[in-house]
Design goal:
Number of strands of chain B: 2
Helix content of chain B: 40-55%
Strand content of chain A: 15-25%
Structural class of chain A: alpha/beta
Distance between the termini of chain B: 61 Å
Strand order of the largest sheet of chain B: 1-2
Number of helices of chain B: 3
Strand order of the largest sheet of chain A: 3-4-2-5-1-6-7-8
Number of strands of chain A: 8
Structural class of chain B: alpha+beta
Number of helices of chain A: 13
Largest sheet of chain B: 2 strands, antiparallel
Distance between the termini of chain A: 38 Å
Order of helices and strands of chain B: HHHEE
Oligomer: heterodimer
Helix content of chain A: 25-40%
Radius of gyration of chain B: 22 Å
């Protein structure tokens, strides 16, 4: 698993609001990147309310966690869980018994530095809110996925998070190149948008004025996959899974495959 | 605009959402950044004029300052009233 350090990217998956799909997205994105052969680790920053392990289906294999690594109670290798389905994919779970204050910038920095030596992509699954835990998850990020539902409170919270990304992170504080922001719309209902009852992807993109990476449709397959502990990007016949794969392709600078009528993104943006 | 839209005079709820959000986001974005500092001199001038309607004060009797805390900014307005010249 040798990897060139300079190539590593830290990606925070964040939103402000809870329940919009951060963990689903973190699991889906990490899995899709690993399926493409990129060494990837996904970290649960929701200390006290861990859930990534459940969505990834490895909850029974959690022994050590992020806080214990930070506190030196175990090694990084002991805490990393290797995915059994996908090569190159690892999970670093959150602690269930501690709270978010157990995270320190110094400690997080040390863990991320060690992970950078092994992994090309480090996905940080942020807790909801705009407090300490969310700042810990975003502080060292190079890029950010802003998970937004086409709904007023989610859009407003996403804008708050954009404000924090541009002021409370390492890149902001040290006056470096700003974090690259990507908008990912989730739980999108085409029919409601057509009826004028739901904000369209274009509306949200115009309001937040950041680049749209993808549109993930509301789908029963997301619920089913979470029931089974399978990242949605491992499901073969899922519209949401396909949309995540397309978003990952765009993230990597590729042109996603044409999906005929179903391509929501293509339909919205006419290409 | 489709024919359907043409006959629909009620604004769609998504349109309302967009309008409201545009105002909120513009407001939030004005608040952050360093825009606070930009309007302070004007605010100070306005405050002086308002207070002068009731009390005789000089420019230096009003002091305005913005303090940065962790997650918020505090706008501190200090008006020193000279003794016994309330109109």
């Amino acid at each position: 698993m040798a990897n060139q350090n300079s190539d590593s990217k830290i990606i925070v998956v964040t939103s402000g609001k809870g329940g919009v799909g951060k963990t689903t997205t973190s699991a889906a994105f990490a899995t899709a990147l690993a399926l493409r052969g990129h060494p990837t680790v996904v970290i649960d920053f929701d200390v006290g309310l861990r859930n990534l392990d459940l969505i990834m289906g490895c909850e029974r294999r959690v022994v050590f966690d992020l806080v214990q690594v930070i506190n030196g109670e175990c090694t990084l290798n002991q805490a990393l869980i290797k995915d059994r389905r996908v090569d190159n994919l690892y999970i670093l779970p959150a602690s269930q018994t501690r709270d978010k204050d157990a995270l320190t910038l110094k400690g997080v920095a040390r863990v991320l530095e060690a992970l950078k030596k092994r992994f090309q992509y480090i996905i940080c699954d942020s807790p909801a809110g705009i407090e300490h835990g969310a700042i810990m998850a975003m502080y060292f990020a190079d890029e950010a996925l802003i998970i937004t539902n086409p709904e007023v409170s989610s859009v407003r919270d996403s804008d708050r998070i954009l404000g924090m990304l541009s002021s409370k992170t390492r890149r902001a504080v040290q006056n470096l190149k700003p974090i690259k922001e990507h908008l990912l719309l989730t739980r999108y209902l085409d029919k409601r948008v057509d009826r004028g009852d739901m904000l369209s992807a274009k509306d949200v993109q115009e309001i937040l004025a950041i680049k749209l990476l993808g549109v993930i449709p509301e789908s029963v397959s997301v619920l089913q996959a979470s029931n089974a502990g399978t990242p949605i990007t491992l499901e073969k016949e899922s519209d949401a899974g396909d949309a995540y794969h397309d978003a990952v392709a765009r993230f990597l600078g590729e042109e996603p495959p044409k999906r005929g009528k179903k391509g929501l993104f293509a339909r919205l943006f006419g290409n | 605009m489709s024919l359907l839209d043409y006959f629909n005079t009620q604004p769609k709820s998504a349109t309302l959402a967009k309008e409201r959000l545009q105002i909120i986001v513009a407001h939030q974005r004005r608040e952050r950044g360093s825009s606070m500092g930009d309007f302070l001199p004007a605010l100070q001038q306005d405050l002086i004029e308002v207070v002068r309607k009731y009390v005789e004060i000089n420019d230096e009797h009003i002091k305005i300052r913005v303090e940065q805390a962790d997650n918020y900014e505090v706008l501190e307005v200090n008006i020193a009233l000279p003794e016994s010249n309330i109109k």
